[in-house]
Amino acid sequence: MADDMFSAPVHRGMRALNRASFQRTVPLKAARVFDNKNIFKVRSELESSKDALQQDRLGSVHPDPDPERAKAGKKCILLRPEVASHCASASTKEQDASNARTPLPHSPTVGELVKQELIAVIPFDLRLDYSYWTYHDIISAILPEDEQGEIPSGFSQVGHIAHLNLRDDYLKYKHLIAEILIDKNPGVRTVINKIDDVGEENEFRTFKYELLAGPDDLNVTMSEENCTFKFDYSKVYWNSRLNTEHRRLVATFKEGEAVCDVMAGIGPFAVPAGKKSVFVWANDLNPDSYSSLDDAVKRNKVSDYVRPFNDDGRAFIRTATARLAEVDHKVDVVPKRARKESLAKPDVGRALHQPKTFQHFVLNLPASALTFLPSFIGLYPSALRHQLPEQFPMPFVHVYCFSTKSDDNVAEGNLICEELSRQLGHEMKPGKLEDGDVKVWDVRDVAPKKRMFCASFALPREVAFREV
């Protein structure tokens, strides 16, 4: 019953949001504190005895309901509802039939505080309005009872944009849902609903959307790993839920290494890597992604380390490898301590030389990245090998893909390796990287029966040196 007292008023079938309809007066009792200097003492005792109101998003201390006392700054402490309970003495059929109830009184603590003349117990009408209830409270009070199996609550937030993917059952409530989301999420100003799968419209991984509420402004600024990105969400790909994966992979790159980011997007791998002094050649086919990537490189001051490109990924794997062998590039690194010292003192630093070969290739286009692997066959033809150091190490390839999902991912790992073997023309087995096998990482679930993976492996010499 106490929970019912604080629940949102029910308005089943509401289609146009009427915030004024969500008001409720909850009849309570309160401890009027005669002297404000006793508020802390009284509240502590009432909280210890469980007499003070304990309700989500509601404090127990409120202005006195008497206008004159409230004007003078007097306070009262709300008491928990005297919840009705079955009479302990109920034994007759008549009492059982009438479901007799009596109030469950407050503890003796309240009476003791009254006796000490610290408080008086008074009626208090607690008025709740739309601002009190959560999104889930409001939407639950609106949707018909038979449509509350999976109330839409999850969304991706990109800057000020809430990105929904509503099921067909809830499309008739889409504008209502969007308005409530904006009301209950202070950082959200625009709500959109995806109306196709990412990549269906074009190869740039953009998607069609409909505006549900707020301004049609999809220009956002995002911060990730101490890097700032500005982009138009309608024109480029961005997924905030991949932040953990971005961090995991970048953590495997070492200072001074060279990375080829084949489908770099706006730079969630490349720019943080550049921040840790990793040389990155970052490419994306989408001109808008390239533009935002170029902006991010400059905005985050990593131009010494990150070079943006706007090429076809399959060709870029080979052209970047050949061009890197010909480029001489170094960055003078000044220790932070030296920067803080007087300019009159000479800076003692060191130089990082860009390697002639890539230590890592990143292919983050899970819908089709596996089909880019044939570009690694014959990656180092004999003419190119003559320009490279002897016995240079083979690069690691990190390729993202989709598969089914299971508890142990064993079947999925085998299927992924079978496809790797087919694309590279070389047997690839799941196992440990240090053993020369493929390490398959579970990245995230993307659908009830679909999971995203990252398969990492050292490029086999037989593949890289094969004559084609």
TrEMBL record:
Top EC class for this record: transferase
Region ranges (Disordered): 51-71
Catalytic reaction annotation: guanosine(37) in tRNA + S-adenosyl-L-methionine = N(1)-methylguanosine(37) in tRNA + S-adenosyl-L-homocysteine + H(+)
Cellular compartments annotated: Mitochondrion matrix; Nucleus; Cytoplasm
Molecular-function GO terms, alphabetical: tRNA (guanine(37)-N1)-methyltransferase activity
SAM-dependent methyltransferase TRM5/TYW2-type domain sequence ranges: 155-461
Spans through the membrane: none
Main location: mitochondrion
Pfam families: TRM5-TYW2_MTfase, TYW2_N_2
A Gene Ontology cellular-component term: mitochondrial matrix
PROSITE patterns to which the protein is assigned, alphabetical: SAM_MT_TRM5_TYW2
InterPro entries the UniProt entry points to: MeTrfase_TRM5/TYW2 (IPR030382), SAM-dependent_MTases_sf (IPR029063), TRM5-TYW2-like_MTfase (IPR056743), TRM5/TYW2-like_N (IPR056744), tRNA_Gua_MeTrfase_euk (IPR025792)
Binding residues annotated for S-adenosyl-L-methionine, in chain numbering: 246, 284-285, 312-313, 364
GO-annotated biological processes: mitochondrial tRNA methylation; tRNA N1-guanine methylation
Superkingdom in the source lineage: Eukaryota
Swiss-Prot/TrEMBL keywords: Cytoplasm, Methyltransferase, Mitochondrion, Nucleus, S-adenosyl-L-methionine, Transferase, tRNA processing
Ranges in a coiled coil: none
Enzyme Commission number(s): 2.1.1.228
Keyword Ribosomal protein found: no
Function: Specifically methylates the N1 position of guanosine-37 in various cytoplasmic and mitochondrial tRNAs. Methylation is not dependent on the nature of the nucleoside 5' of the target nucleoside. This is the first step in the biosynthesis of wybutosine (yW), a modified base adjacent to the anticodon of tRNAs and required for accurate decoding.
PANTHER family: TRNA (GUANINE(37)-N1)-METHYLTRANSFERASE (PTHR23245:SF36), TRNA METHYLTRANSFERASE (PTHR23245)
Subunit structure, interactors included: Monomer.
Sequence similarity: Belongs to the TRM5 / TYW2 family.
Name this protein carries in UniProt: tRNA (guanine(37)-N1)-methyltransferase
Record organism: Oleoguttula mirabilis
